[in-house]
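> example.struct
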């Protein structure tokens, strides 16, 4: 990384409390109930190639907020600030890591764009993030998953090194230098009954079912039950085919409407 030389020295200590793998640079354990407790650490360095690819998949842009849950020596937030011009926040429970990260940010001259907080990653406010990066055990990813889906806005990108999210399938899964990298986009909530108005058809009853970004369902059209086809949800954008017609729109809370201007305008509101 330009301007910063990161020194990694693995340290192996006994595991206590709840095991949490923190940071894109190593595996850390924390006791979530006690922020002031010094964590025991198993430190496993992560190749720079993995860090770079995670950010390439997330595609942060200037003006966005990136949060690294378990920021270690700070290289993810620092790299994001240097290369992409974003504001970045690193969360770590270990005060030594926070101090190290702050020093590295000063060396890289991005201390005004990067912030490091000593907080518990399961309790910190993530709601304003546009990008989340993390390195957790599978079971802890699953534990964090409800907060990612509920607290983050649709369209927020989530990138994980090494570990998946259980039955929440990734949008992308890649191997980088022999290591797994997973990428998700937080989906809007669309499950339920909607009234669809499209062209000459008014008041179509649309019943949607949802499992993460996978959507299925059917509609009542002129007394017929018509299944949805080719349904797709990515962030707040939704598309599906119904009775031979393709709908492409954007979800905005309790409504969704056409966004591409092709074909007839349409709008749906939640019943």
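> example.seq
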């Amino acid at each position: 990384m330009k301007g910063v030389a990161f020194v990694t020295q693995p340290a192996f200590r006994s595991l206590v409390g709840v095991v949490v793998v923190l940071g894109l640079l190593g595996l850390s354990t924390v006791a979530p109930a006690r922020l002031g407790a010094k964590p025991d650490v198993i430190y496993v360095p992560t190749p720079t190639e993995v860090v770079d690819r995670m950010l390439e998949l997330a595609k942060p842009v200037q003006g966005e907020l990136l949060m690294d849950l378990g920021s270690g020596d700070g290289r993810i937030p620092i790299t994001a600030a240097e290369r992409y011009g974003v504001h970045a926040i690193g969360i770590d429970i270990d005060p030594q890591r926070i101090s190290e990260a702050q020093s590295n940010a000063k060396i890289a001259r991005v201390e005004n764009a990067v912030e490091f907080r000593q907080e518990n990653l399961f309790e910190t406010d993530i709601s304003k993030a546009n990008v989340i990066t993390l390195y957790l055990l599978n079971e802890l990813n699953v534990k964090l998953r409800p907060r990612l889906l509920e607290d983050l806005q649709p369209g927020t990108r989530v990138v994980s090194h090494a570990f998946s999210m259980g039955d929440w399938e990734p949008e992308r899964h890649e191997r980088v230098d022999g290591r797994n990298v997973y990428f998700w986009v937080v989906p809007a909530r669309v499950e339920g009954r909607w009234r669809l108005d499209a062209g000459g058809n008014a008041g179509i009853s649309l019943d949607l079912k949802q499992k993460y970004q996978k959507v299925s369902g059917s509609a009542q059209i002129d007394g017929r039950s018509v299944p949805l086809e080719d349904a797709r949800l990515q962030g707040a954008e939704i598309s599906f085919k119904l009775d031979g017609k393709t709908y492409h729109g954007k979800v905005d809370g309790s409504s969704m409407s056409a966004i591409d201007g092709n074909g007839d305008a349409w709008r749906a509101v939640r019943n």
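> remarks
The chain is about 20% helix and 35% strand.
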